[in-house]
């Protein structure tokens, strides 16, 4: 339960909010549990890419995702920039590589604001906007962590 519901001067404002917005606020307060790989008791695991043995702890680490300041001016849909290494097939050497979202400019119409907007969006955010049938529903329904 949110602590804001106990303040009498806020109850009037909260009662006017849509139910899905209240649920989203309460859900965003809960910590998200992410499991990248199923746990096992084996001390070593074999990688699928190069079939080499690595310690189990290397598979349980989450990738470091960077969100630059430019991500606050666009809709990235929860995506970020990830740094890593890629192995060249010819020489079998590891080279540093950076992966980022595929960004595109798109024109949206907001029924709430009653105006057209040109927004920089990632392809995943664009698919989510299409699934929710509009930019207004995307902003109301998606979590704040995905909005960047």
From TrEMBL:
Molecular function terms from GO: structural constituent of ribosome
Keyword line: Ribonucleoprotein, Ribosomal protein
Keyword Ribonucleoprotein tagged: yes
Keyword Transit peptide appears in the UniProt entry: no
Domain of life: Eukaryota
Stated family: Belongs to the bacterial ribosomal protein bL28 family.
Protein name per the record: Large ribosomal subunit protein bL28m
Membrane-traversing stretches: none
Record's GO cellular component terms: mitochondrial large ribosomal subunit
Xref: InterPro entries: Ribosomal_bL28, Ribosomal_bL28/bL31-like_sf, Ribosomal_bL28_sf
């Amino acid at each position: 339960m949110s602590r804001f519901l106990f303040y009498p001067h806020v109850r009037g404002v909260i009662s006017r909010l849509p139910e899905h917005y209240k649920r989203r606020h309460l859900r965003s307060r809960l910590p998200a549990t992410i499991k990248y790989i199923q746990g096992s008791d084996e001390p070593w695991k074999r990688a699928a890419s190069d079939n080499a043995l690595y310690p189990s702890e290397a598979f349980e680490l989450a990738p470091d995702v960077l969100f630059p300041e430019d991500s606050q001016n666009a809709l990235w849909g929860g995506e970020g920039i990830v740094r890593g290494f890629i192995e060249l097939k010819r020489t079998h050497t590891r080279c540093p590589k950076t992966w980022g979202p595929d960004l595109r400019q798109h024109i949206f119409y907001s029924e709430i604001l009653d105006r057209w907007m040109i927004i920089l969006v990632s392809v995943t955010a664009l698919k989510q906007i299409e699934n929710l049938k509009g930019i207004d529903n995307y902003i109301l329904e998606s979590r704040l962590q995905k909005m960047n």
